[in-house]
Amino acid sequence: MDLFAEGPTSHWALPVPAKIEGAPAGLQRFAFDLDGLPPGASATGALITLTAVAGDHAIEVAIRLD
Number of C-alpha atoms within 13 angstroms, CB side, residue 29? Predict the structure, then answer.
């Protein structure tokens, strides 16, 4: 499975999340640094879209950052 992160506008250039170890059996964990925000943008309250892709299937989930 791959995971991609998108910011609220095309001016955000978030890195591709990397798989990390330690997930329970049957699950995967990912992490990424919150880099690539446009000048003057704040991550607080931003709506981030995460897209998980596995083979021919994909799902998107929108989350608001604290």
Answer: 7
Question: For the segment 23-66, what is each residue's pLDDT rounded down to a tens digit?
Answer: 999 999 999 999 899 999 999 999 999 999 999 999 999 999 99
pLDDT score at 30:
96
pTM of the model: 0.85
Nearest residue to 30 via CA among 10, 52, 13: 52
> Burial, 1: exposed, middle or buried (Cβ in 10 Å; 0-12, 13-18, 19+)?
exposed
Q: Are 28 and 41 in contact (CB under 8 A)?
A: no
Rounded to whole angstroms, the Cα distance separating 28 from 11 reads 28
CA angle 48/46/43 to nearest 5° reads 105
